[in-house]
Amino acid sequence: xxxxxxxxxxxxxxxxxxxxxxxxxxxxxxxxxxxxxxxxxxxxxxxxxxxxxxxxxxxxxxxxxxxxxxxxxxxxxxxxxxxxxxxxxxxxxxxxxxxxxxxxxxxxxxxxxxxxxxxxxxxxxxxxxxxxxxxxxxxxxxxxxxxxxxxxxxxxxxxxxxxxxxxxxxxxxxxxxxxxxxxxxxxxxxxxxxx
Length: 195
Known about the structure:
Blueprint: H1 15-18, E1 22-24, E2 29-36, E3 42-46, E4 53-58, E5 68-71, E6 84-87, E7 99-112, E8 115-116, E9 119-124, H2 141-153, E10 163-169, H3 171-188
Parallel strand pairs: 6-9
Antiparallel strand pairs: 1-2, 2-5, 2-7, 3-4, 5-6, 7-8, 7-9, 7-10
């Protein structure tokens, strides 16, 4: 599991700003903070200043998230939030707010109302049921169709036609985007941290 290289403290650590994005880059393992599970329409988001979860919104439609979802520490995407991660093939619900290690299998590039809001695609790193999955392509054509449909229609009752999946890319592309988001975090957020 992720080790926190930090002395004990009387104040609560915000894992978003303490943990590195990669738990083990050579094994493509990321640290991920779980925000929500599959089969929910509630959208929780990590409060970047405190590390707590907040109910951001209740979905406008009956489309539920088809995967567990969260964010990657010390990354910053172009939409002004940490880089998102969707964790597929989760057998048992994860605890929102918990930390997991997830193994990269690809990335989905996404336009959310004119903003870049990409989604790393991953599996739980320590789930032996998923050891054989090394690429999102192995999840099958229906998984890809379902995922694209979800992202292009989940806001239809609020802001129809504003979301567009631009494509699904391989692990190498995912690593490059993660590294870009790590650099953006350093350039945008790091200097603003206190203590």
